[in-house]
G-protein coupled receptors family 3 profile domain-containing protein (Emiliania huxleyi), 166 residues
Amino acid sequence: MDEEALTPSPEALEKGRSGEPYEMPAQDRALMLVLAIAALVMPVFGVLSVTQTDCDAIMRSFSAFMITFGLVQVVKSFLAFVFKVPFEPSKQQKNLPTKCVSALGLLSIAMAVWGVAITAPRVGELPSDECSAMYFYTAFITAAANLAIPLAIAIGFCVAMALRKT
């Protein structure tokens, strides 16, 4: 097969996967900005948990998780905002910023496993004097949500495929 036939034109790369030009709605841009700003909470809480509590004594690497997971979310959110990467995959361009946002999304899922692994065993025990409930539940809920959503999508996909075969 001719390699030129497989290479998209520069104009096609500026369009979404459907081939249509995409103009992001203002409400999507506003939501992206809110998500980018909200993502700043996690690394700030991570730093505060190091300086104000002793969560690391109870859960090894708790503060490291909060800071690194939060920074990944901040970078991902700001890249999506600055480069106007749409939420809907069919509207996304095939360019470097979109690939970076997607890669950071996959990294977030892997990091969520880390977060759930260190926080879930302590759900019944905390909060305590050593670790503030605010820091603990921020880490647990964020990690659990980042893990539960893709897991629910995967289960739904498997169920849909199983029903399709019957």
Summary: The two ends are 37 Å apart (CA to CA). The chain has one domain: 3-165.
